[in-house]
Amino acid sequence: MRIKNLFSWKSWAMVLTLCFTGIQGVTAQKGPKWLEKAIFYQIYPSSYMDSDGNGIGDLPGITSKLDYIKSLGVNALWLNPVFESGWFDGGYDVIDFYKVDPRFGTNTDLVTLLKEAHKRGIKVCLDLVAGHTSDKCLWFKESAQADANLQYSDYYIWTNNIPKSEQELIAKRKASPNPQSNTIGRYVEANAPRAKYYEKNFFECQPALNYGFVNPDPKHPWEQPVSAPGPQAMRRELKNIMTFWMDKGVDGFRVDMASSLVKNDPDKKETTKLWNGMRAWMNEQFPECVLISEWSNPKQAIPAGFHIDFMIHFGIPGYPSLFFAKDTPWGKYENSYDYCYFDKAGKGSLKQFVENYGDAFRATKNLGYIALPTANHDYQRPNVGGRNTFDQLKVAMTFFFTMPGVPFLYYGDEVGMKYQMNLPSKEGSNERAGTRTPMQWSNDADAGFSTCAPDKLYLPVDTENGKLTVAAQENDPSSLLNYVRRLINLRQSSEALGNDGDWQLISEVNKPYPMVYKRSAGGETYIVALNPSGKAVAASFPTLGGKAVELVMGDKKQGKYRQGKTTDKIELKGVSALIFKLK
User: Fold this and answer.
1) How far is CA 464 from its chain centroid?
2) CB 187 within 8 A of CB 170
3) Is beta strand 408-410 parallel, antiparallel or unpaired with respect to 40-43?
4) Cβ neighbours of residue 121 closer than 8 Å, sequence gap 6 or more
5) Is the pLDDT of residue 217 over 70?
6) In terms of domains, do 173 and 278 share one?
7) SS3 for 120?
8) How many alpha carbons lie under 13 Å from residue 60 in its C-beta half-sphere?
């Protein structure tokens, strides 16, 4: 019997439907539909808006600024931790995952924020510190008791014996100027009734939660397998936390130190299994909610179940080579490059970024999204050191809002707030204090952030005589604030420039200035040309065709696009950014 006789036209229709459904299924792996247009705004809650005049930001303060946030064009928020905290590490030492910290308000204040944000079409994601708690957490206090069979006894990792090498690290940490803030070593000497030591996850006051060990060492009885009751109970607790907040309207979570949960897991296979299980559960129970990872290795994190993973200051190399100059705090720790790319000196390289980003993008573009944030609470802002003019910042912002993936705008970067050097450490911030300063709304003593006395502010403000404020830029068409708004509007108007559009570098990686790349999708093609250097540059590339080229973003005085029969050419003046659309 010949194959064509086996199928009626209805059968073929069913086959085609199944094939189409399969294709849709691949797309659906990337997450809920709203991610296709998502643009996040990250808020450090202590620093955004103070509603009660105590010098510290709070949830009602954020709620009062939702109309401004919507005006930016963003449609999602990520809030740094708002849970009750010991405040040794900026909220990342959580005491109670089910309670808003009193400094920010109440659980009801958070629910109010969720409802008001949703009225405006804004999603809200919380920060989930999944790998550890504060040592003040009731779970930890109970686990430290002599009775090892209480409810929370095995939520943590306790032992009376650790390797000699770890004992030496404890001694070294104790001898350091600030042992509590020294992160070396895995164990803390507690001399608790339960045992002498516990395993930490970062600082001493952040005991690691017990998700189990890969291939537990028989000589280390404290290393429980991932299948043991304690690690399994911990997984259920994590789901309970997430359920509690998603039931109240939270739209997802950014997961702190997402790759750190399972111990002795160098290839992250068990960590991947853990998060894949969480993703499958979320897909079933909360399909419109998302998981965002602080992993900074998209090729691991996205197949592990995360919808979004950051490419930031650690993990796969590349981001620092773009933005961290050697004379800035984060640049001084880098030894893989001499000059950053976004610098007027024009001596940077694109090779490290393009190779690593391109590899990660190609591997994950049908599975999830890579995020390239403008900055975050853990590293310096774009306005730092010699990159301090609006023209320079506009070039950087053009990059951030024309790359594929999900953009994350760190609060205040839209008005060019600067990283403030040499601030005293605040709640474990150390050098990070300079990037956690209060949002600058207006030109008064508190920059419109609070009504307290200036010396009571959470951290100091520096508006440069009002220049770096919302009030100064709101009604100025040429301001950075309105430039960012136009960029976001342009991105949202185009499938090609959007989160799912394709990306290809068309300039030569070994001739890094200018950086020219193509964004394409749905029959549209845009060309983005960036020159952060202070000198005029040009790039030639095989012709892209098209009847004409339209300048859709930037000043035509900054440069031009010349079409040829076989070769196209873009010329750019110093410190300039242009976006063209092929007709």
Assistant:
1) 28
2) yes
3) parallel
4) 70, 75
5) yes
6) no
7) coil
8) 12
Domain range for 81: 35-130+233-491
Tokens of 284: 């079933």
User: Does 217 map to a domain?
Assistant: no
Which tens digits make up the pLDDT trace of 97-113? 999 999 999 999 999 99
Nearby residues of 314 by Cβ (< 8 Å), 6 or more positions away: 296
Closest by CA to 181, choosing from 419, 431, 459, is 431
Ramachandran class of 176: left when φ > 0, alpha when ψ lies in -120 to 50, beta otherwise: beta
Report CA 105 to chain centroid distance, whole Å: 25
Same-domain check for residues 300 and 431: yes
For residue 548, what is the domain's CATH number? Answer: 2.60.40.1180
- Residue 297 sits at φ, ψ, to 5 deg, of -150, 80
**23 band by pLDDT with thresholds 50, 70 and 90:** very low
Classify residue 225 by its DSSP letter.
B
Q: Which residue has the tokens 């954020």?
A: 62
Conformational region of residue 480, where left means phi above 0, alpha means psi within -120 to 50, and beta covers everything else: alpha
Q: Give domain status of residue 221, yes or no.
A: no
By three-state DSSP, how is residue 79 classified?
strand
| Helix/strand/coil for 434 | helix
Angle, CA of 275, 281 and 284, to the nearest 5°: 140
Task: Tell me whether residue 104 is in a domain.
Answer: yes
Q: Residue 184 and residue 389: Cα distance in Å, rounded?
A: 38
Task: Looking at the structure, tell me whether residues 200 and 252 fall in a common domain.
Answer: no
| Verdict on whether the full-model pTM lies above 0.70 | yes
Distance from C-alpha of 76 to C-alpha of 8, rounded to nearest angstrom: 48
Over residues 104-158, the pLDDT tens digits come to 999 999 999 999 999 999 999 999 999 999 999 999 999 999 999 999 999 999 9
Q: Are residues 39 and 25 in the same domain?
A: no
pLDDT of residue 15: 32
CB 130 within 8 A of CB 256: yes
In this structure, are 87 and 54 located in the same domain?
Answer: yes
Residue 10 — very low, low, confident or very high, per pLDDT cuts 50/70/90?
very low
Whether 280 maps to a domain, the answer reads: yes
Round to the nearest angstrom and report the end-to-end CA distance of the chain.
Answer: 52
**Contact status, residue 194 vs residue 157, Cβ threshold 8 Å:** no
Tell me how many domains the chain contains. Answer: 4
> Cα separation of 274 and 260, whole Å?
11
CA atoms of 350 and 327, how far apart (whole Å)? 19
* Listed residues 149, 175, 210: the one ending a domain: 210
The per-residue pLDDT for range 381-433, each reduced to its tens digit, is 999 999 999 999 999 999 999 999 999 999 999 999 999 999 999 999 999 99
Task: Extract long-range pairs of 481-486: CB within 8 Å, 24+ residues apart.
Answer: 481/414, 481/415, 483/394, 483/397, 484/72, 484/397, 484/401, 484/409, 484/414, 485/71, 485/72, 485/73, 485/414, 486/553
Q: What is the CATH number of the domain that holds 151?
A: 3.90.400.10
C-alpha of 314 from chain center: 12
Using CA atoms, how far apart are residues 470 and 438, in angstroms rounded to an integer?
13
Q: At what angle do helices 390-400 and 480-492 cross, to 10 degrees?
A: 20
Sheet strands side by side (includes 576-582): 502-505, 515-521, 524-531, 576-582, 549-553
